[in-house]
């Protein structure tokens, strides 16, 4: 007895009317640009540009690319999660889209014993737990060819914080905030901005400011935001530093501000999601888990 096999009927070619409609749409340069503009991922745009020289011309036009970047700003790729007691962080993507598979794989490859202290534009500022010493370094998980860039040794000061530069400053750029109490009463403070470059820290000093009391312990320092750095003190003040104007200020924390138990400054009305409080600087802490977001 002969077994019957299923036969797949050939797909009928599109009708002349459908072909004409498709040609009318894709043959119109204005409509084609609008279609390309609405592609969800840059990787999809690259594949579309390979269709023909005409599509490549539209996809590579500087004006079109500016519109594409405006419409598709960098999105959240995922989280680095470090559980207390774990050897190092692990990466958890927020999307399983095939277009993001390469970026997700590279971000997941950032392994090692380190603590993430800042994250900006796909770069990580980490404290590398080397067997001989703790070093600060910049990692670029999405660009593995850049490798690990070890920052210069930190100045021998206790009041110092490290961050990635706001505009990149080169993929290995970093900035440090150094506070120097002045006088025996320590009611004045001088704040130094240190930028990394050529293997050394370059200092840019700000004005000396008077404090209403002896310099109180700093609870938390936020990374640069629009050229400014803010530190929350345990005495209820915010120390502000204008990086562009090289000026600093000390103001009373608004009553609506919230200081969490860990000393970090949280935005009023911060949203609680999946058991974690989303805080300024995109750090979530709860139930012994620390998360950092990669954009």
UniProtKB/TrEMBL annotation:
All copies of domain F-box protein AT5G49610-like beta-propeller, residue ranges: 116-256
UniProt-listed InterPro entries: AT5G49610-like_b-prop, F-box-like_dom_sf, F-box_dom
Classification via SUPFAM superfamilies: F-box domain
Span of domain F-box: 29-68
Coiled-coil boundaries: none
Protein known as: Uncharacterized protein
Organism listed in the record: Setaria viridis (Green bristlegrass)
Lineage: Eukaryota, Viridiplantae, Streptophyta, Embryophyta, Tracheophyta
